[in-house]
Specification:
Elements lengths: L1 H25 L2 E12 L4 E6 L4 E5 L5 E3 L5 H5 L10 E9 L2 E9 L6 E10 L5 E5 L5 E6 L2 H11 L7 E9 L2 E9 L1
Parallel strand pairs: 3-6, 4-6, 9-11
Antiparallel strand pairs: 1-2, 1-5, 2-3, 5-6, 7-8, 7-10, 8-9, 10-11
């Protein structure tokens, strides 16, 4: 009886360890940059077309954060928080199977969150901060939020990317600039 219990416990432990890598892959956050071409309020989906012409169907959930969208009363109540067809966006999403679920959507462009073009001059430890030198010579330091944005910052800080030009899309909070998305130029 003791042997059977130990064997069962060993099988359960091994099965539990095998599930961990599968669970970890569900939490990977990726990002795309494009324009919303279609919104479906009933299905809570948006179709985002990227520069290469690929269309991605993105699902919105109650927890989806939207930055830079118009803060109208009706906009804050709808699933898309004021985003419209034609809005330029950066979508941070997780993927389970073939379904992409938005974690965060940044409304870019003239009506969206702020941006600055420049060259990355410094990346803080672990990608927690990034300093960008603008064309006018000023340096701006940004706090970095979101796992995918931090991974982008770390990648930019390595090798040739560090000397490359980027656009940083950011918001300001409590006197700090917070980077939400990096785009290589």
């Amino acid at each position: 009886m003791k042997f059977a219990m130990k064997a069962l416990l060993a099988v359960v432990a091994v099965a539990g360890l095998m599930v961990l890598p599968v669970r970890a892959t569900d939490d990977v956050v990726s990002a795309i940059h494009g324009t919303i071409t279609k919104l479906d309020a009933g299905a809570k989906t948006a179709v985002v077309k990227t520069a290469d012409g690929t269309e991605h169907t993105i699902h919105f959930v109650d927890k989806t954060a939207v930055h830079g969208a118009e803060a109208t009363e009706t906009g804050s109540k709808d699933a898309f928080h004021g985003l419209k067809e034609g809005s330029e966006v950066a979508v941070h999403y997780t993927e389970k199977g073939s379904e992409k679920t938005a974690v965060e959507v940044d409304h870019l462009g003239k009506d969206g969150i702020k941006s600055v073009d420049g060259t990355v001059s410094r990346v803080g430890e672990g990608g927690k901060t990034v300093t960008v030198k603008a064309a006018d010579g000023t340096e701006q330091t940004f706090d970095v939020v979101g796992k995918d944005t931090k991974e982008s910052a770390v990648a930019i800080g390595k090798g040739a990317d560090k000397t490359g030009k980027v656009t940083v899309y950011y918001t300001e909070s409590a006197g700090k600039k917070v980077a939400h998305f990096f785009q290589k130029l």
